[in-house]
């Protein structure tokens, strides 16, 4: 910014203006984002119209009589320039395969890709992460890097042992349970050392690509040490960058961290960020209180943490989906054919759908137990209700997940033997077209998370219910429940009786009640999702749409970059 201001004739005057802007909550975004104008840039100085903070009007009026017109025109052109953005996640959103002796990459669907792709309207970004496979040969590494470069992706190569200890050893065996409110975790120093080493390798790979004023956006619990490691390296190179961190899981209260001896290192690692985002106010407040109790950080001002001469902002960012993608898919002829087939097959029963990754936090054993209780409580509904449960395979090489799958198969067999096959249990992934058809014909969606960052299945189900107005039955421990409880039926997943009653109530709602709940949820999903069409072949401009939260986060992070000492 400083170099750009040197285009102006009166540098002292411009410095005064920028100082005033940075300290004005209304005008702090005006020049950078171009969303609020002090004056109409399409008019010559003699006819400029004041727009904005009237308390500063007298200060700016004199400026308008001099070179401020040229300053405004220059800033208007700057606002059209793309902000440099580096996105960092443990795994790159691409799959890399060796085909006929060479490497090829293709863009993955869902997750961060769906939420972030539209940022190319305002940013030019690179994506750093592990490519998902071990590549030892230097020539092969060059080839992998080249194929990923076409998608603006930068690989960080890890050997298989280090990647395993980092991901499965520490991130998922130790951090994941704690983040999902589970106690009794046993610490192991070997995976902890791997976790630290991977975060260091990420920092080393990113620092040379970052320029001053680059925005760096780090994602999720695999990289909690990275903000501090990266800040140290950037400072050594004299680079000033804004670092943001988004956590896509819950964040528990401080007691759950008590048995983890490295908890201070993790929390301090995050506090080198300028902005930290959570999915709900509960998770955000838990983090703030943990910083205060564990590190004696100052947290008197809402959403703000003062620690070691750093000001860290925290905020809630509601992640969304692309509802139009579901609407468009539902109109495809083959999907319409599938919907007709499913409607005919289940024309005499109420259909309950569940779609979950096979994980303990999804409450799948609780779901089957609660459904069994529902059938016991309402024998009159035997052969009139069916639960179609999709359990998407996850971490199949981990014993705890293998045991969970065996338990679920056993429970499914007992329920069908007892009640006459009211349960269709599928342990497999379902193609997107089939999934939308299944959502569309379901009268109820049952989600039983014991802890969940958000659970976007709730959003997806609503996006497919324009015609049927199906009912969402949602665990109070899903992050989405914080926003969707008014339009859904809430319950405690550990209470079988409560779950049984919730299912019965959902099936019994009349058309007006279903419509009212659906319209509330539809409005929420649409209001919290902003879509920007883009059409290019690169990751930075894929044919996917961007969710509102990605735009909101980068805008707030950019504000922190321009005025880092300004209150949150």
From TrEMBL:
SUPFAM superfamilies: UDP-Glycosyltransferase/glycogen phosphorylase. InterPro entries: Glyco_trans_20. GO terms for biological process: cellular response to heat; trehalose biosynthetic process. It comes from the Eukaryota. GO terms for molecular function: alpha,alpha-trehalose-phosphate synthase (UDP-forming) activity; trehalose-phosphatase activity. GO terms for cellular component: alpha,alpha-trehalose-phosphate synthase complex (UDP-forming); cytosol. This is Uncharacterized protein. It comes from Penicillium salamii.
């Amino acid at each position: 910014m400083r170099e750009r201001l040197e285009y102006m004739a009166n540098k002292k005057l411009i410095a005064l203006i920028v100082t005033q802007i940075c300290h004005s909550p209304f005008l702090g975004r005006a020049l950078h984002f171009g969303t609020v104008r002090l004056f109409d840039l399409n008019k010559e100085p003699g006819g400029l119209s004041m727009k904005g903070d009237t308390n500063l009007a007298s200060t700016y009026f004199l400026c308008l009589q001099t070179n401020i017109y040229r300053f405004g025109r220059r800033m208007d052109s700057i606002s059209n320039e793309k902000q440099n953005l580096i996105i960092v996640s443990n795994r790159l959103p691409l799959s890399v395969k060796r085909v006929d002796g060479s490497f090829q990459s293709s863009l993955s669907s869902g997750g961060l890709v769906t939420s972030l792709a539209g940022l190319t309207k305002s940013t030019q970004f690179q994506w750093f992460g592990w490519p998902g496979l071990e590549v030892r040969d230097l020539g092969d590494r060059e080839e992998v890097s080249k194929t990923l470069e076409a998608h603006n992706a930068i690989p960080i190569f890890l050997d298989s042992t280090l990647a395993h200890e980092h991901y499965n050893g520490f991130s998922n065996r130790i951090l994941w349970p704690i983040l999902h409110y589970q106690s009794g975790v046993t610490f192991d120093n070997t995976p902890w050392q791997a976790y630290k080493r991977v975060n260091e390798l990420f920092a080393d790979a990113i620092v040379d690509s970052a320029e001053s004023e680059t925005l760096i956006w780090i994602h999720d619990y695999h990289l909690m040490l990275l903000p501090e490691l990266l800040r140290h390296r950037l400072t050594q190179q004299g680079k000033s960058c804004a670092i943001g961190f988004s956590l896509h899981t819950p964040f528990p209260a401080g007691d759950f961290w008590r048995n983890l001896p490295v908890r201070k290192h993790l929390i301090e690692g995050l506090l080198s960020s300028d902005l930290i985002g959570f999915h709900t106010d509960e998770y955000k407040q838990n983090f703030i209180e943990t910083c205060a109790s564990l590190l004696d950080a100052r947290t008197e001002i809402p959403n703000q943490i003062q620690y070691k001469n750093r000001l860290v902002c925290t905020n809630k960012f509601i992640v969304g989906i692309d509802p139009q993608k579901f609407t468009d898919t539902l109109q495809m002829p083959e999907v319409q054919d599938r919907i007709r087939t499913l409607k005919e097959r289940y024309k005499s029963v109420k259909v309950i759908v569940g779609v979950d990754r096979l994980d303990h936090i999804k409450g799948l054993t609780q779901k089957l137990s609660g459904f069994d209780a529902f059938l016991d409580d309402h024998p009159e509904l035997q052969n009139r209700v069916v639960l179609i449960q999709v359990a998407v395979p996850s971490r199949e090489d981990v014993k705890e997940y293998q045991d969970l799958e065996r338990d679920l198969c056993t429970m499914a067999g007992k329920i069908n033997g007892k009640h006459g096959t009211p349960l269709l249990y599928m342990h497999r992934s379902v193609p997107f077209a089939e999934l939308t058809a299944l959502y569309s014909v379901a009268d109820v969606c049952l989600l039983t998370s014991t802890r969940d960052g958000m659970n976007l299945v709730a959003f997806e189900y609503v996006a497919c219910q324009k015609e049927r107005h199906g009912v969402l039955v949602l665990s109070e421990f899903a992050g989405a429940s914080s926003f969707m409880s008014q339009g859904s039926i809430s319950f405690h997943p550990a209470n079988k009786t409560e779950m049984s009653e919730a299912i019965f109530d959902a099936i019994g709602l009349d058309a007006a009640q279903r419509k009212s709940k659906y319209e509330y949820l539809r409005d929420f999903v649409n209001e919290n999702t902003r879509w920007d069409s883009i059409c290019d072949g690169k990751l930075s401009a894929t044919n996917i749409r961007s969710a509102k939260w990605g735009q909101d986060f980068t805008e707030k992070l950019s504000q922190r970059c321009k005025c880092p000492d300004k209150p949150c």
